Amino acid sequence: MTARVESDEKNDTYAHLDETGRYRVKLDFSREDAEQGYNYLWIRQAKPYAGETYGWHTPLIDGTEVGIAFDGGDPDRPYIACAFHDSEHPDVVTRDNRSQNILRTAGQNELRMEDQRKSEHIALSTPFGATALNQGHIVDAEK
């Protein structure tokens, strides 16, 4: 089932998390009209890498559409299984740049890995100071 991540402030710039990294979500079918950020229990997000002192967490911000699953099918054990792009939040990789692998944060920090044959490169960039680090094929070599 689908839901939306909620922050205690509408359109918050940063993720609204509890002390263990869980999120509040509002199920799409919910008709409850609770105070912003208090529509559901705190729930965990499944991640590709997790351990006692290490892990990978790319925070979800207010309005992110997520897929909710249930551990062992138990409705008392929901978790965020995935995040979706939608018409308001388009995917960073589409038909036009399908050879790229992109990780871009809400702050526009970006790791881009280009797999186009004979143009392979990795670019790491940040909007602060418009700085970038490039490895491999020289991007914008004519500049």
Core attributes:
mainly beta; OB fold (Dihydrolipoamide Acetyltransferase, E2P); 2 domains; 9 strands; 0% helix; 34% strand
Q: Shape, please?
A: elongated
- Please tally the β strands and state the result: 9
- Give the class from helix and strand content and strand pairing: mainly beta
- The run of helices and strands is EEEEEEEEE
Please name the CATH architecture of the largest domain. Beta Barrel
Query: Main β-sheet, in a few words?
Result: 5 strands, mixed, barrel
CATH class descriptor name of the largest domain? Mainly Beta
Estimated helix fraction? under 10%
Poorly predicted segments:
none
Q: What does the average pLDDT come to? A: 89
SSE blueprint and pairings:
Elements lengths: L1 E5 L16 E5 L14 E4 L19 E6 L7 E7 L15 E5 L5 E5 L6 E6 L4 E6 L7
Parallel strand pairs: 3-5
Antiparallel strand pairs: 1-2, 1-4, 2-3, 4-5, 6-7, 7-8, 8-9
Question: What does this protein look like?
Answer:
There is one protein chain. The protein is mostly beta strands and 143 residues long. The chain folds into two domains: 2-84, Beta Barrel (OB fold (Dihydrolipoamide Acetyltransferase, E2P)), CATH 2.40.50; 95-136, no CATH class. It contains no helices and nine strands. It has strands at 2-6, 23-27, 42-45, 65-70, 78-84, 100-104, 110-114, 121-126, 131-136. The strands form two sheets. A five-stranded mixed beta barrel has the order 1-2-3-5-4. The protein is elongated, with a radius of gyration of 18 Å. The chain starts with a strand and ends in a 7-residue tail after the last strand.
